[in-house]
């Protein structure tokens, strides 16, 4: 538990080893947190993303962070919520798992996650938080190399949900 933190605010300000981007399958930028990350990182991030050939839902890819204060960006594609019968929960679990696997393989010790899929993609916020927290706790039980995982909440509703679920 002491390796988990909640932050409220803009994930692009965090000086961690890696921030996670809630990207779309093109990896070529979008709205919400994706737009914010590309705005701060600058054009070079977009250029590197162009070399990646996109990313499937539930998968993750890593890039450098350019003008961001972190060292890496891990881009993961969350599921669009279609009511829960399209493997949305499994795919969201996979986003956290695959992102953490990439982090470990790149010697990342501190990492911040946004509330993947809970913006434009419409995943119910509490359900998403329960999935995120349980996957991260499970991961930390079996991993000693990750020193800190930050849940970067942006809206008040998610902030309260994480406070409640981590209490
Ligand atoms: P998705 O398409 O995966 O739903 P969004 O970017 O629309 O992605 O939303 C994901 C979450 O990111 C939402 O909870 C939203 O409030 C949050 N968010 C938006 N901008 C930022 C930011 N700059 N830093 C951290 N979180 C953000």
Explained architecture:
This protein is an alpha/beta fold and 167 residues long. The chain has one domain (4-166): Leucine Aminopeptidase, subunit E, domain 1 (3-Layer(aba) Sandwich), CATH 3.40.220. It is 38% helix and 19% strand. It is built from 5 helices and 6 strands. The chain has helices at 32-41, 43-50, 88-105, 125-141, 156-166, and strands at residues 4-8, 18-23, 60-64, 72-77, 110-113, 148-153. Strand 3 and strand 4 (72-77) form a beta hairpin. It is globular. It binds adenosine-5'-diphosphate. The site of adenosine-5'-diphosphate (ADP) has 22 residues, from helix 1.
CA(first)-CA(last) distance: 10 Å
Strand order in the sheet with the most strands:
1-6-5-2-4-3
Helices and strands, in order, run as EEHHEEHEHEH
Largest sheet: 6 strands, mixed
Overall pLDDT level: 98
Structural class of the helix and strand makeup? alpha/beta
The tally of helices reads 5
Task: Considering the chains and any ligands shown, give keywords for the structure.
single chain; 5 helices; alpha/beta; binds adenosine-5'-diphosphate; 6 strands; 19% strand; globular
């Amino acid at each position: 538990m002491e390796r988990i933190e909640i932050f409220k605010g803009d994930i692009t300000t965090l000086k961690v080893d890696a921030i996670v981007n809630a990207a779309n399958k093109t990896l070529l930028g979008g709205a919400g947190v994706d737009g914010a990350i590309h705005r701060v990182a600058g054009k070079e991030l977009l250029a590197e993303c162009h070399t990646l050939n996109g990313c499937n839902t539930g998968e993750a890819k890593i890039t450098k962070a350019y003008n961001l204060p972190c060292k890496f960006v891990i881009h993961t594609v969350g599921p669009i919520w279609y009511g829960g019968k399209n493997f949305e929960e499994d795919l969201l679990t996979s986003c956290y798992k695959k992102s953490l696997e990439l982090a470990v393989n790149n010697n990342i010790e501190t990492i911040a996650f946004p509330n993947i899929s809970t913006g434009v993609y419409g995943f119910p916020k509490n359900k998403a938080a329960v999935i995120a927290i349980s996957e991260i706790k499970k991961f930390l039980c079996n991993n000693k190399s990750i020193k800190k995982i930050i849940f970067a909440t942006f809206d008040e509703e998610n902030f309260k949900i994480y406070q409640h679920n981590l209490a």
